[in-house]
Design brief:
Blueprint (H helix, E strand, L loop, with lengths): L12 H6 L9 H13 L7 H23 L20 H16 L4 H13 L6 H18 L61 H13 L9 H10 L3 H12 L5 H29 L4 H6 L25 E2 L13 H17 L3 E6 L4 E2 L2 E2 L3 E5 H14 L5 H21 L6
Antiparallel strand pairs: 1-3, 2-5, 3-4
Helix pairs in contact: 2-3, 2-4, 2-9, 2-10, 3-4, 3-6, 3-10, 4-5, 4-6, 8-13, 9-10, 9-12, 10-12, 10-14, 12-13, 12-14, 13-14
């Protein structure tokens, strides 16, 4: 039903922008603060999903602030009538204030920088109702911060409940290698009803033919010294080992240039809220199955009870320090199944498809890693689904996931995005 009311179709985005009424707020403020949020939430790492949580909080608040004024879609947390929003208030001031207030609350160490950027933005807004717009933005930020209070961010996690010896079970490959993102699986979702709502089918049985197929594929294609993996596949594997939240927000900025402020705010909210819940669902599922990574599985295949898998005690994946990347790559310190990148990218790609009403789009994904001292060029795609397919393949090429984990991860992400489509961001009739 949303699709039938959709304004921002790729085919008519430029026309829609050209017909926009004079005085509509400048969408570049939305883009500016999306990039600012991405930069200012980086210090919330080393937990990668501390950044995705922060981006979801910022963009959810920005959407509520702008939408309260525009009135085109259902609110996320804020009732426009309760905060006195009016159509003539400044959308730019509302967006900048919502982003600023959330960011200084979740990244207080960067407050001086964030305050300076906010002052610069506000100085450039000449709207007569700037102050009223800022009040709406502040109300949206307060609602978001109240909603996320005590949401499980960085909560302790008892690894003793899930780490076990024996074939198929994940355990740290080194004593210090425990998951800094384990808290994510028990965090409060943004959209869905519970972290375990979309449980995957689970990894393949060790004695099964499908497990054997996955095992042999990653052993051959994902090996450090693989002779079957092409140079482009190697580059793609390294390229996609970059925070998906940064990759996909960059894509959103590149596609959203012709959208007005309200539509752009909705796009950023959709992809970031879906991504955050994709991660929450994924990590809950990871620790439910706690399945071993290819590195352990291949080295210890003589213990798995499957005569068709052959152990190689010296096997190394492409993602090993010997691969000359910046920064260095290793096997991630958390379970294989399902793939985190698959869950997050699956949720994001489906959110893009729902927003634009099509799978067809021409875009570049710009990364931030180098290989053998050289930056890896952007990856170009003509369909969202083609990018997602490469994400699936890339995790196998990197030697860090079985294909089943990648595919089931994207299924989780798709279910999160479809739940969002049914329950959120519906147009006001």
């Amino acid at each position: 039903m949303i699709r039938s009311f959709r304004r921002p179709l790729l085919a008519c985005a430029v026309l829609a922008a050209a017909l926009a009424a004079p005085g509509v707020a400048r969408a570049d403020v939305i883009r500016d603060w999306n990039l600012i949020a991405q930069q200012q939430t980086i210090p919330l790492r080393p937990t990668a999903h501390g950044e995705s949580r922060g981006m979801a909080m910022v963009e959810g608040a920005v959407y509520d602030a702008v939408n309260a004024i525009d009135g085109g879609y259902q609110p996320y947390l804020v009732d426009p009538r309760a905060i006195g929003a009016q159509p003539w208030f400044s959308q730019d001031a509302a967006a900048a204030t919502a982003a600023h207030d959330v960011l200084v609350a979740i990244a207080p160490a960067q407050q001086a920088t964030i305050d300076g950027l906010y002052a610069s933005t506000m100085a450039g807004i000449t709207d007569a109702f700037k102050a009223q717009g800022a009040q709406v933005g502040a109300a949206a930020a307060r609602a978001m911060l109240a909603f996320r209070q005590n949401d499980g961010f960085l909560a302790p996690f008892d690894f003793g409940l899930v780490i076990a010896p024996g074939a198929g079970n994940w355990r740290p490959l080194t004593p210090a290698a425990t998951d800094p993102d384990a808290w994510v699986g028990n965090a409060k979702p943004f959209l869905i009803e519970s972290p375990e709502q979309f449980r995957s089918e689970g990894p393949n049985a060790l004695e099964s033919g499908q497990y054997t197929k996955d095992f042999n594929e990653v052993k051959e294609l994902g090996a450090l010294d693989s002779t079957k993996r092409t140079a482009d596949e190697t580059a793609a594997a390294v390229f996609w080992q970059f925070p998906p939240i940064a990759l996909w927000n960059g894509v959103a900025r590149s596609l959203a240039g012709s959208l007005d402020t309200a539509d752009q705010a909705r796009l950023y909210a959709m992809i970031n809220l879906a991504a955050a819940d994709g991660a929450i669902s994924c990590w809950n599922d990871k620790w439910y199955w706690h399945f071993w990574r290819p590195l352990a599985a291949i080295r210890e295949a003589d213990t798995d009870g499957n005569p068709a898998t052959v152990a190689d005690p010296t096997w190394e994946p492409l993602f090993a320090p010997a691969t000359q990347t910046t920064p260095p790559l290793v096997t991630p310190p958390f379970p294989d199944h399902p793939s985190g990148h698959g869950c997050v990218s699956g949720a994001t790609v489906n959110a893009f498809q729902d927003f634009f009403g099509t799978d067809k789009a021409s875009f570049d994904v710009v990364g931030g890693r180098s290989l053998n001292g050289l930056p890896i060029p952007a990856r170009h795609f003509d369909r969202f689904s083609n990018a997602l397919k490469e994400v699936i393949d890339a995790r196998v090429w990197g030697g860090i996931h079985f294909r089943t984990a990648d595919v089931q991860g994207t299924v989780i992400g798709k279910k999160v995005a479809h739940w969002m489509r049914k329950h959120y961001f519906e147009p006001v009739r």
